[in-house]
Each structure stands twice: as structure tokens, then as C-alpha cells.
Amino acid sequence: MQTIKDKEQRISWWRDAKIGLFIHYGIYSVYNRGEWIKLREGISDEEYENTAKNGFLYKKGMAEEWVKLAKNAGMKYAVMTTQHHDGFSLWDSKINPFNSVNCGAKTDIVKEFTDACRKHGIKTGLYFSLWNWHHPDGMRCAQDESARVRFVSYVKEQVRELMSNYGKIDILWYDVPSPLNTAEKWESEARNQMVRELQPDILINNRSLLEEDFATPEDKVQPQKTDWEACLRFTDIAFGGLDQKYAVPYRTNANGIVKLLSKCENGCGNMIFNISPNAFGEIPEYEAEELAKFGQWTEKHASAVYGANTRGFVGANGICTATLRNNHVYLWNWIWHSDSMRIAGYTKPPKKVTCVTTGEELDFSYENGVITLKNLPKECPEKILNITVFDMDFGDTAPEYRLIPPNAVEFMGI
Hints:
14 helices; about 30% helix; alpha/beta; 7-stranded parallel beta sheet; elongated
């Protein structure tokens, strides 16, 4: 089994990476009504298989477009849905004939994706859902022990294919351990040990009902005691394809994505952000445009974005979010105020303050626990998203933030 020391060696790149791209793509992308459509609309296996044959018409080369988008957006790793709950494999599976090579796509999409990740220097992640609506034992395994044994063996061999046939894999991202409810029933320890024997450097998330390497709160930024990654998306309607005409008004934008990232970094976590290609694998225009702007912003503010965050409570003011890395407090400014800005609560002054956006060192003062940034431009200097970042460098001592006096008995509202 892996040790804590092994994990520290394996996960260091991931902690520094901060941002990943999630790609939800499958037969559900044809329907434009979300990735759970087969179950929620009661679509028969016959209809779904017919859609796979005649409607799932992936365009070769699209996986590389996903990876290039990740790279241009400043994302350091990408995770693709190799098989969602519908049991449809996006690889040339020898044990599951219901796959993208045998259906309309006629393509091993996992191979295209993994090849593209290596070509463009993006760490490779493969998503795999344990839940399976298509396999005959996928549901009955919870009540029938012989079905459980068959199904768990089938799952193990599917995972073996993914871990054996596509070179080095950096992340195995499990999903939905249903209908079995314990790691013992899933035989997760034995399967994950097999994975680590095949891929010694791999990171595994916590959705096989074992803690493993990192936790995966979904649709929320929820800091954890362990390593964690918030799984977020443009809209809370669905991860899979949606009709763009109607979906766009509900989507976040590049500014919103930066705001979500700041919350993740404030809690010492990563962010994996989702795109939902259409039936052909094409990236929706809106998602591509907003992630392109996000990438322009991350490139300009790389010193604040990348690198493992430091645990410890730091604060900002009402128009900024604070993140901590070593002895640097980064202020992510959302609303430009004027030619000065005040931040209360720090028990000592920083050694220097720099505007990350422009690279300029700033004038500041410190009095009565208040840091005042002086002689700022009258207009926001960041012109991509109007989000500026300031670096308060506390030198060789850790910053201490205490907004509420220690002798305060009670303080409401913070």
C-alpha cells in the first residue's frame, strides 16, 4: 500500500497546479438535456443504443481541442469522462462492446485525449463512474451476491484496461459508488492497489468510498482537512450538454470563475471546472470564450494563482478576497475603489506591497492595525476582467490576522 511519504511525493504537482479542466462528454451530449437523462427520462436501452449508433457522431480531433482549451485557460490538468453512469465506454474496450469504437463515433476517444494531454503538457486524468445503468448486474448487484461478484470483477477489468492501455495516467477520478454502499462491497482496496501497481504515481479521489488522495466536494467550495478539489461548472443545471440557446443566461462568466478560484485558494483547495461539448465533441462557443478570457487573466496573475496555498486564516476587506501562500497575502480585488485602499486586522505591516497586475511596488502605510495602499490608479489597471491582485509580502515572518480584539466577548456578523 502507499504511504504518507509516497503521497507527498505524488501529489506535490497537483497542489501547485491549482486548476484543472473537467470534460463531461458522452451519449447524453446528443440529447442536450443533461448527463442523467437516461435515468430521469426513462429512456430504454434500445433507444439509447440507437442514439449511440446514429447520433453520437464525435468528430475526430475534438479531444485535442479540449486539451488546448485547458492549456490556454491556464489549467494544468484535465479529466475526461471515460464512462458515465450510462455504462458507455469512450475507449476501445474489449470487455464492454457498448463503446465509442463500436458505435457511431468509431473512435477511441480516450486514446485521442491521453495523446493530446501528453502532446500539450497537460496532466492526464480519467473519470470513471462505478454506477452503471447499462450492465445487467449494475443495479441488481445490491441484492444479489453472485451479481455483485460478477459486477465488481467487471468493473475491475474495465479499470485495468484504462490503466494499462494509455500510457502514464496522473489521476483516476471515480464517481458515484452506487448501488453498493461500502468500500468492502466494491472491493475498492484491492482494485485501487491494482491501479497503483500499474500506475505508481497516480492520484485517486475519494469516491470509491476510501479516503485515498483527495476529496471532491461538488457544486460547492467546501474546504476539507485533507487535500481537496471543488468540482464546479458553468451552470448548476447539468454537467453534460445543454441547449445553448437556453443555457447561456444561467451560466457564470470568466469573472465568476476567477471568484470561485479565489474561494478555493482561500480554503487551500484546487478547482476543476467543467465544459460540456456537444454531440460532435465541439466546445460551446460561450464556454470557449469565457475560458479564453480566464486564461488571459491567469497568465497575467500566475504568481498569485499557482503554487500550494498555506493553511492559516487571513482576511481582506469588503471588496477583496485574501489567499495565503508562504508569507504572502494576495488580495484579489473585485470592486475598484479609488486611489487608496484600507485593510484592517493585521497585527504588523508587510515588508512590501506589489501590484501583481502591473508588477509595480506600491506605497503603503500602517497605523493602528490598518494597512493603507496609497497612490493607486484612479481606474482599475486590469483591463481583461477588471480584477486586480495585490501581493502583501510579510518577509520572513508569517502574517497574523485578527480583526476582532481578543478581549471581545461576542461579535455578530463575521
